[in-house]
Amino acid sequence: MSKAIYPGSFDPITFGHLDIIRRLSPIFDEVVVVLANSRRKNYTFNLDERFELVGECLRTEPSMRNLKNVSIARCESLIADFAQEIDAKVIVRGLRAVSDFEYEMAMAEMNRNVNSEVETLIMFTRPEYGFVASSMVKEVASLGGDLSGLVPESVLKVLGQRLRGGEK
Ligand code: ADP
């Protein structure tokens, strides 16, 4: 059985992430979206909130509803070790632009160093999501900009509450 993990912060999840998940689903028997929680990172949404949001998007977004082989997990340890623990041979990462490349290559090498049994595969973003990053989404949300088409409705709502004090 082929199993892949798609790890990330998902702080918060965007349509760019969801598009990668949707495209991974027919390729692998099982896809596990893994929410990383690093002590070195300052998240806007805590692990439980990010987990809830990803779950809600997978349940309610029309393009995601029929994906029976996608699940969610939390990981507070090394991703490459976690992959092996759950018997996943593949780590998938998304690539938006050349600017992502060096970071992703270094991460893939580091993960191989941690655990050579697990391979990293890169999936390119679709051009319409090439500029969508969680950090930028939060910046635009905090200034009240339009994010429709970039993040699901449930994410829009919590972004408004968290970053604009209840305003949308
Ligand atoms: P991390 O903090 O691990 O980079 P992110 O949630 O920012 O976590 O991203 C998780 C993965 O999804 C990364 O491989 C990232 O490059 C990819 N990704 C982020 N945004 C997009 C997007 N718009 N399209 C495709 N891939 C994306």
Write the layout of secondary structure elements.
Elements: E1 3-8, H1 15-24, E2 30-36, H2 47-60, E3 70-75, H3 79-85, E4 90-95, H4 98-114, E5 119-124, H5 134-142, H6 153-164
Parallel strand pairs: 1-2, 1-4, 2-3, 4-5
Residues 8-10, 14, 16-17, 20, 36, 93-94, 96, 100, 125, 129, 132-134 line the site of adenosine-5'-diphosphate.
Structural overview:
With 168 residues, the protein is of the alpha/beta class. It is 41% helix and 18% strand. The chain has 6 helices and 5 strands, in the order E-H-E-H-E-H-E-H-E-H-H. The protein has helices at residues 15-24, 47-60, 79-85, 98-114, 134-142, 153-164, and strands at residues 3-8, 30-36, 70-75, 90-95, 119-124. Strand 1, helix 1 (15-24) and strand 2 (30-36) form a beta-alpha-beta unit. The longest helix is centred in the middle third of the chain and has 17 residues, at 98-114. It starts with a strand and ends with a helix. 30% of the residues are buried. It binds adenosine-5'-diphosphate.
Question: How is this structure best summarized?
Answer:
This protein is of the alpha/beta class and 168 residues long.
